[in-house]
Specification:
The protein contains eight helices and twelve strands. It is α/β, with parallel strands linked by helices and 234 residues long.
Length: 234
């Protein structure tokens, strides 16, 4: 049973969120401040963290940094009453897997948590469904069985969403996708803030492009969205 760590100093909200998560068959841990949250993330190894940004003591951004320093692949969904785009973008720039502003629908929250958990669950090969082979594009190798990517001799430090987005695009070279399509295909959402896709594309470019300001692989298709242009190594 997957475990969700709910971090919020609002006891009523924690109770409501935890109740919905438990009804969905998930195990729940709770923390009401940043110090307790960091300690639980290290000792209990949750499968995903729901993290409020406005916490007493350590704020949510610092809690996030400490959690990711300890465990770089820990899925984190940020929850906040803040409506500023700058907060949302900063959370995504830091590598958060999702961002949901209060007030939010408890049902939508559960669906998004389940979507992240499906993405992060290890793929188990079976005789009927063999593990997919690696994707190779020039000096870029994506090992889908190990959930790892390398650019030349350098391993890429990718979040879960960044890996999923990269895999999706590289597996479909030359195909232009809108942000709405990518949100549906990669995030599993039929609605949401499309700037999430924009931020993840920018982060990916910083990791796979020689010059992120002039991308030649993860290209913008004006009026449409984004396209992966394959590269060959001479």
């Amino acid at each position: 049973m997957p475990t969700v760590l709910v971090v919020d100093d609002d006891a009523v909200l924690r109770e409501v969120v935890s109740t919905y998560l438990r009804r969905a068959g998930l195990s729940v841990l709770e923390a009401d401040d940043g110090v307790e949250a960091v300690a639980l993330a290290r000792s209990a190894a949750p499968d995903i963290v729901l993290l409020d940004l406005t916490l007493p003591g350590l704020d949510g951004f610092e809690v996030f940094r400490r959690m990711r320093t300890h465990r770089g692949d820990l899925p984190v969904m940020m929850l906040t009453a803040r409506g500023d785009e700058s907060d949302r973008v900063l959370g995504l720039e830091l590598g958060a897997d999702d961002y949901l502003a209060k007030p939010f629908s408890a049902r939508e929250l559960v669906l998004r948590v389940q979507a992240v958990l499906r993405r992060t669950e290890p793929t188990r090969p079976t005789p009927a469904a063999p593990a997919p082979g690696p994707l190779v594009d020039g000096d870029l190798v994506i090992d889908r069985r190990r959930h790892e990517a390398r650019l030349g001799d350098r391993p890429l430090a990718l979040t879960v969403r960044e890996f999923d987005l990269l895999e999706h695009l590289v597996a479909r070279p030359g195909t232009a996708f809108s942000r709405a399509q990518l949100m549906h295909d990669v995030w599993g959402w039929d609605h949401g803030d499309e700037s999430t896709v924009t931020v993840h594309v920018r982060r990916l470019r910083e990791k796979v492009e020689d010059d992120p300001s002039s991308p030649r692989r993860l290209c913008t298709v004006w009026g449409v969205g984004y396209r992966w242009d394959p590269r060959t190594v001479s």
